[in-house]
Amino acid sequence: xxxxxxxxxxxxxxxxxxxxxxxxxxxxxxxxxxxxxxxxxxxxxxxxxxxxxxxxxxxxxxxxxxxx
Length: 68
What we know:
Helix content is about 45%, strand content about 0%. The chain is mostly helical. It has one domain (about 15-65).
């Protein structure tokens, strides 16, 4: 039985591979741009600690502070 239904430029051939490659690269570009924009927006708004002297340091030397 001959396979006469083959097509090099069908969606399961070269063009399908190119469509999938372009789609994956475009998703990669969009996610990269969104990630860079998110990092830039966070970098422009640094975290502010209003009362840094009120922060208690708790470690093994100050184990009695953990109970409070």
